[in-house]
Amino acid sequence: MPRERFLKTLRELARCYQAFERYSGAHVRELGLTPDQFDIVATLGNTSGMSFKELGEQTLITKGTLTGVVDRLAARGLVERVASEVDRRSTLVRLTRAGEREFSRAFPAHIAHLKSAFGALDEAELKRLEALLARLRESLG
Fold first, then answer.
1. Side by side, which strands form the sheet with 79-83?
2. Which residues, including other chains, have CB under 8 Å from residue 50's CB and lie 6 or more apart?
3. Is residue 70 one of the residues assigned to a domain?
4. Domain of 61: which CATH number?
5. What are the DSSP E strand ranges found in the chain?
6. Count of alpha carbons within 13 Å of 28, Cβ hemisphere only?
7. How many angstroms separate the CA atoms of 42 and 40, rounded?
8. For residue 87, is it within any domain?
9. For residue 124, is it within any domain?
10. What distance in Å separates the CA atoms of residue 106 and residue 100, rounded to the nearest whole number?
11. Domain count, the chain
12. Does 12 map to a domain?
């Protein structure tokens, strides 16, 4: 059976994703959060809150994991659940004041950390990479 050309690309994409997760995750843990907790805090930052459905759509966290992560953030006093003013059957998750402070501390620090890695690429390379990744994502459905 002939070896498919895209397999080499697929392997490199997987290695890149794993390297990013290690690089990003290690820094987030230094900031005192898990990657999933950071994802929620970063997503809720500068918002008035989101439903669980919206939060699940906006983060990289699976539905089954989301409730537990929100529970742990609530136990730390960083998020709270509130009834939606639009639909009382719906619950919103929003940052508390402590959560807003955490967002203001951790988000810029992590962006600066990531910028140092992405700084290895110039503007044209970043645009090309973004376009290629978007094209691949679209072809995957």
1. 50-51, 91-95, 79-83
2. 43, 44, 58, 92, 93, 94
3. yes
4. 1.10.10.10
5. 50-51, 79-83, 91-95
6. 20
7. 5
8. yes
9. no
10. 10
11. 1
12. yes
* Domain span holding position 34: 6-116
Residue 105 Cα distances to 7, 23, 44, angstroms: 40, 19, 14
> Which of these, 100, 101, 104, 83, lies nearest to 92 by C-alpha position?
83
- Cβ density class 85-96: b for 16+ within 10 Å, e for less: eeeeeeebbebe
| Interatomic CA distance for residues 122 and 65, integer angstroms | 36
Q: Which tens digits make up the pLDDT trace of 95-109?
A: 999 999 999 999 999
Distances (CA, A) of 106 to 69, 84, 109: 17, 27, 5
| pLDDT digit string, tens, across residues 11-57 | 999 999 999 999 999 999 999 999 999 999 999 999 999 999 999 99
Whether the CB-CB separation of 59 and 43 falls below 8 Å is answered with yes
